[in-house]
Amino acid sequence: MYGKAFAPEYQGALTTLSVNSSLTDVLAAGTEQLKAAEQAGRPGEAARSGLAVAEAQRRLGRIGEADRAWKASYRAAREAGDTAAMAWALWSGGTLARQRGAFPLARRLLELAAELGERGGDVVVRGYSLAGLAETGRIQGDYEAVGRLHEQLLAEARRRGEARHTVWALEGIAQMHRNTGGYDTAYALFEEAAEIAARAEDRRGHAWALRGLADVVSVRDGDTGRALALLSEAEETCRAMNLSSALAYNHKMRGNVLYRAGRYDEARELYEQALAEFRTMSEPRGEALARLGLAKSLARLGRDRAETEAELADLARTLERLGLRHARAMVSRAQQELGAQAEAVR
Q: Using DSSP, how many helices (H) and how many strands (E) does the chain show?
């Protein structure tokens, strides 16, 4: 049985904040408590308030501010001699590094966070850090290496009845099944994640699960209408909570759904919107995926073949440099697909 979802990253004086609190509200409350703690000379409280500030800035797509905030939180925690708070700051920094596409740095920070979490006796930050390592590997396409870790973390979350972490693990495993063609399994896992998130009032997790369901409904069933309806429902949550990154990925997925339906002009508009959003928040993985969708849409709308080939070649180099194997394979498939289309036109 799962209880109501909670946000363990909101600590100290901020534990009253909900997992569904608007990020702008979290940022305002965290900044106020951080200033009060600094003025009172309480580094431990400053570290924990600063963590909320860092996470709010990261999720709002404010990379520079988030980077400064997690480092300040770490310094305050070290001054206070609070090992668990140091681990949480490193977890935030590692998560930010992954968002920025700095995967080696993300792994180093998350490994340190897991180690400090264990040393400090904080099972939650240890679990979140291991989950971050698993997600880093999954995003890079290293499914064999991180698949077992995902399953282990899912079992631990189920045993503790921790809804939010269970939802995260289910969605990660579902995504791997979806990317390897296991659509029925992926659908069942996304559906379970959506149900648990809804019961636990985890609106963020629910929005990501709906996005996953929309993807499977589109690619497996060709049901464009239902896929778009699911994305619209998820978008309402993203906007209400100011989830900038989740909203950009929602728009990118809407582009995917429209592209699969042959509605290339509409898809182009969504990919352009998502691309601008990802660039604003300096998120290279999302930017590359939006560029890929845009290149495919423009090719279908008659763009010069040489321009398309040049764009895809540049994308391939970018993804190779970032170490994103699955996305790199997607570019290869696009090159084959659009090359075959061009030959057919001849």
A: 16, 0
Surface-to-core class of residue 1, CB atoms within 10 Å of its CB (0-12 exposed, 13-18 middle, 19+ buried): exposed
In whole numbers, what is the pLDDT of the chain averaged over residues?
Answer: 93
Q: Find all residues with CB under 8 Å of 112, minimum gap 6, and list them.
A: 87, 90, 94
In sequence order, what are the residues at sequence separation of 6 or more whose Cβ sits closer than 8 angstroms to the Cβ of residue 253?
211, 214, 215, 231
Per-residue pLDDT reduced to its tens digit, 146-183 = 889 999 999 988 998 889 999 999 999 999 999 999 99
Which residue in 325, 241, 330, 346 sits closest to 291, CA to CA? Answer: 330
What Cα–Cα distance (Å) separates residue 207 from each residue in 236, 264, 272, 344?
A: 9, 25, 22, 40
Residue in 304, 296, 289 with CA at minimum distance from that of residue 335? 296
Cβ atoms of 142 and 329 within 8 Å: the answer is: no
Question: Is pLDDT at 324 greater than 90 in this prediction?
Answer: no
Question: What is the predicted pLDDT for the residue at 344?
Answer: 44
How many other β-carbons are positioned within 10 Å of the β-carbon of residue 41?
Answer: 8
Structure tokens at 5: 């979802």
The length of the chain, given as a count of residues: 346
The first and second tokens of residue 323, run together, are 């170490």
Contacting residues for 175 by C-beta, under 8 A, at least 6 apart: 138, 186, 212
pLDDT in tens, 177-222: 999 999 999 999 999 999 999 999 999 999 999 999 999 999 999 9
Q: Closest Cα to residue 10, out of 92, 117, 99?
A: 92
* CB 55 within 8 Å of CB 29: no
Q: Tell me, what amino acid is at 283?
A: E
The two tokens of residue 107 are 């792994």
Percent of the chain with pLDDT over 70: 98
C-alpha 281/C-alpha 285 separation (Å) is: 11
List, in order, residues 6 or more apart from 245 with CB less than 8 Å away.
59, 61, 99, 281, 283, 286
Say if residue 1's pLDDT is above 70: no
